[in-house]
Design a protein that fits this description.
- The chain has three helices and eleven strands; from the N terminus they run αβαββββββαββββ.
- By secondary structure, the chain is mostly beta strands.
- The strands form two sheets. Strands 1, 2, 3, 4, 6, 7, 8, 9 and 11 form a nine-stranded antiparallel β-sheet that branches. Strands 5-10 form a two-stranded antiparallel ribbon.
- The chain has a single domain, classed as Deoxyuridine 5'-Triphosphate Nucleotidohydrolase, Chain A (Distorted Sandwich).
Amino acid sequence: MILNDRTIRFLIKDMGLVSDYIDLSKQIQPNGFDLTVREIMKFTEQGQLDFSNKQRKIPFAEGVEFSPDGWVVLKPGAYLVTSNEYLKLPRDIIALGFPRSSLLRMGAYTHHGVWDAGFEGRSQFLLVVENKKGIKIKRNARITQLVFFKLSEEVEQGYSGIYKKLV
């Protein structure tokens, strides 16, 4: 079952599903919740991934600087975005992310992993700029929409990976 705006609003107020948001009246959508830009980083080295994660290497990324009026110009490429919002998913709700259609119409998109049941922390995801002229993004811009799904029952063990409680 996909959660609607009323249920999302209730879960935010009742159990802190989302905190550190900017404006609920703009961020709650009929079928989801818009995440906003806290930080944008560009990759400065290569990463690596194996089966067991014993040799996993998350590449270093450095922050891009916003202008004094809050804007940043992004050239074509891949960027790591951290959201303002802090999520606290119970063990019976997951989320999937989708780029806002306005972002797609600019020649850019976001890619996301699954927000597993039991995840708690700030979200990070990939922003890819394909527009050859680049794009401008303002700090706190609504960039991606989370859609929440209620599971048939709680998972045995919630998310316990290395990204838990990312602040």
